[in-house]
Every structure is written in C-alpha cells, then in structure tokens.
Amino acid sequence: MVYFDNAATSPLTPAVIEEMTQVMTQIFGNPSSLHQDGRKANQLLRQCRQELAQALEVKDNQLIFTSGGTESNNLAIKGYALANQDKGKHLITTSVEHHSVLHTMSYLEECGFDVTYLEPINQTITAQQIKEALQSDTILVSIMYANNETGDLYPIKEIGELLTEHQAVFHVDAVQVMGKLSLQPNPLHIDLLSASAHKFHGPKGTGFLYHNTLKLTPLLHGGQQEYNKRASTENLIGIAGMTTAFIDSLAREKESWEHVTELKASFLSQLEQLGINYYLNQNPNSLPHVLSLGFPDTNNALLLTQLDLAGFSLSAGSACTAGNIEPSHVITSYYSKTSPRLNEVIRISFSEYNTSAEVLALAQTLKKVIKN
Asked: What value, to the nearest 5°, has the Cα angle with vertex 292 and ends 315 and 3?
C-alpha cells in the first residue's frame, strides 16, 4: 500500500521506535515513585518536558502532557471556560473546527455558555470576523491553525494581536501544523495550544497542551501529576517517542516543507498532463501537506474504494460511520448542504517520506479509475 493519509495519522520513524523500545525495556518505573526506577523515569519525563519547552520557547511548567489532540482541546476549552466563567460566558469559534472543538463547545452551551460559530468567508476566517464577534463577556476564542480537511491556514498572528487588547484568551488547535512549521506561542500571542504526536510521526495516544500559566479546571481528578492539571500516571513511553519525533521533525523542517511542496506541485502537474478534470477546495495560503480536491461527477466513496483496491490509502477528509462517508461539515460550510461537491471531495495528505514515484503512480491510477 502507498500511504497518502498523513493528516489522519502518520507512521512512526525508526528513531521513534528505537527510543520507545528503549524506554519500554529500560525505564519502566512510575515517575511518581521515590525509588531508583521511579527517579530514573522522572528524570526522563523532566528531560522530555524541557526539550519540548525549549523548542517552543516556553516554561517547563506551561506544558501539560495529554492523550492527544482531543484531550488537549477539551482541557483547553472546558478547563478554561469552567474555571473563569466569573469573567463571562461567551466563547467564539468557527464552524470548520475539528469535532473535538465543536462538540466541546456544544457541551458548554448545555452548561449555560453562549457560543458564536463563525462561518468562513471565501473559504477562510478573518481577524475582522473575530473583532466583530467579540463581546465584553467573551472569555475565549478557539481557532485552528490549519484546517485538517483542506489544509487552509488561518490568520493566527492577526487574531492573536487583536486579542491582546481584550480579556479573551486565545486557544489554537495546532494539531495539523506541529512538526511541519516552526511555531512558538508567545510571539503569536497564543495562550493555549494543542498538539498531538501521531500527526508528526510520533505515537498515538500522546500529546500536549501549552497554557500561558492559566487557571484551568482539570478534566481528570486523582493524583497530582502534571502540576495538578491532569491526574493519571504519565505515558512515559509515548512522551519519549513524541519528544523524539518532534525534535527530529523540527531539525528537518525546511527540507521536509520543500519536498512536500514539490510533491504537491508535481501531482497537480501530472493531473493536468493526463487531462484529468478536477477542482481544488483550498486557498493558496494552505499547507502543502494537505490537498483537498474533487473530480466532477465522480462519487468519492466509490473512488476511495477503487483506490484502496489499487493499493492507495486516502480519505474523504470527513467522518466515516458504519462504512458510510458522511458529508463533510467543512465542505458544507465552504459551499452548501446541497452542493454536489460534498460527494466528490477527497483528501490527499503527503508526508516528507512520500516519493515522486508514488505521486506519479497515484495520478496514473486516478486516470484509469476515473476514465472507467
């Protein structure tokens, strides 16, 4: 199989596997235990936190290790809203966020919070929309850095600057960009930032939340781990793998970005040369790693099945339930509930480990499949 679904999850690198295997066999103690094995585990935990903090240019105690992007988003939004509702109960987000944000916002609405959902204009979200939606009782704004379905990049810097003059804190779901571009929260005025290891060649079930020394209500209660912000024995094996993956990704960031950019351009060029009719569902300002496109009058469910049988792993960029592809809420927001594009769009997501030969093979296979 040729894998083009890296926005869903990415394969572990040999270096990550080696690091995790070493921790599994040699550092198996509980980081909270006081004996030698526990102290050894705690030393590694502190080392991982320090390395990540240095890369992000933040303080060690501003990082909370979590089980991934979903938990980080929940802790950021619910944790801050519940702990600071005395300041107000109005929240702002967009209609194109990941469901871990949208469903969390929906839950808070049931708890009495008021949520404004911004709709994209010309397939993007603007700082002006945020400015117009702000109220005196707004306490949090949550915007993703890059859309997980289309790769579109949103104006995080402009929004962050805007919010410096307001009490609302700024949460950024950065799951799709971590490890792909250099990102430090402070220059962008980001107060809460979510990350997930398995999107940058780390293990599943591991992530982190950066917070700007904020008051958060914990989701989990029990022990005093993670500065009393997240009870539960730390997943040291996963954290070690995530740290290795993140540091390695940053080390080859420029090279990887250029390679993926070339892959995307090459693929689109191949489609043109092969005479394949297609359209894009993204703005020029988007991640090269994610390509959202559709083929007129070509059903995406059938197309993905045919590509799977031909040896290619892709997705529609939308939720799958009981084997049926549900219409994408992102594409619906970009167009309409009746747009034929809802049943035509697929997502191709590249990584630095994909090759030009694989891209050519996919284009040629699409030509055969769509023609038939």
From this structure: 40
Same domain, 158 and 233: yes
- Residue 325 sits in a domain whose CATH number is 3.90.1150.10
Out of 251, 265, 302, 320, the active site residue is 320
- For 169-207, how does the pLDDT look when each residue is reduced to its tens digit (9 = 90+)? 999 999 999 999 989 999 999 999 999 999 999 999 999
Looking at residue 371, its pLDDT comes to 74
3-class state of residue 157 by DSSP: helix
Tokens read off for 280: 């894009």
Q: pLDDT digits over 228-282, tens only?
A: 999 999 999 999 999 999 999 999 999 999 999 999 999 999 999 999 999 999 9
pLDDT at 325: 61
DSSP string computed for 254-275: HHHHHHHHHHHHHHHHHHHHTT
Q: Which residues contact 343 (CB under 8 A, 6 or more apart)?
A: 299, 300, 301, 327
> What is the residue range of 104's domain?
14-251
Please say if 320 is a catalytic residue. Answer: yes
Query: What is the pLDDT, as a whole number, of residue 319?
Result: 44
Contacts of 189 by beta carbon, 8 Å cutoff, 6+ apart: 160, 161, 163, 164, 170
Give helix 253-273 / helix 236-251 axis angle, nearest 10°. 70
The answer to whether 55 and 250 are in contact (CB under 8 A) is yes
pLDDT band at residue 54 under the 50/70/90 scheme: very high
Handedness of CA 248, 254, 260, 262 (dihedral sign): negative
Domain count, the chain: 2
CB atoms within 10 A of CB 336: 10
CATH number at residue 118: 3.40.640.10
Are 313 and 239 members of one domain?
A: no
* Kind and range of the H or E run holding 356: helix 356-371
**H or E element that contains 131:** helix 127-133
- Return the number of other C-beta atoms located less than 10 Å from residue 208's C-beta: 29
Residue 322, pLDDT > 50, answer: no
Q: How confident is the model at residue 146, as a pLDDT?
A: 98
Q: Residue 208 is inside which H or E element, if any?
A: strand 207-211
